Please model this.
Amino acid sequence: MAQAPTADWGITVVGERQHTVRADDVTEATLTTGRVRVSCASGDRYDATWRGVGVGDLLDGASPPAETTHLVFESDSGYAACVPVGDAIGGLVAVERDGEALAEDESYATRFVAPGVDGARFVKGVERIRALSLPPEADPTEYENLDLDSPEYEKTDA
Ligand SMILES: Nc1nc2c(c(=O)[nH]1)N[C@H]1C(S)=C(S)[C@@H](COP(=O)(O)O)O[C@H]1N2
Ligand SMILES: [Mo]
Model:
């Protein structure tokens, strides 16, 4: 692996305003922990304890519109997932899995996880989170890209 992405990440959150949360902004007190299963359509699954910043905390400061229906999580690789806000809000952008910094073991430092969301949408290397207000007839999958991938993210069978 070329370089450890260590504590050098930033996530830009876009609502009515835009703000960037950086690794330096994250203190022990702002971290939250959750047990979440990663479950892929291929059948692979595992449970892990994730530690990171709650999605609600990330949205603070970006003033997501009251009509927000979905959050789009975008990776630095182009991979992107569109998740109903009610599901996403129960999740976190993790920086640790089972007590280990993701940046230590993986080619990415951050990743979205949330209970009840399928593993394909657990975007690795989150770079941007956008609040969307979609009308009921909209197709949320048009706002995602679950194919494009950076090779070092070693996508398992989608
Ligand atoms: N950026 C990025 N995130 C991604 C993927 C990817 O290809 N790129 N693959 C997804 C898929 S299909 C699954 S099942 C999980 C796999 O997570 P794991 O490596 O922890 O098993 O990551 C998801 N997150
Ligand atoms: Mo997957």
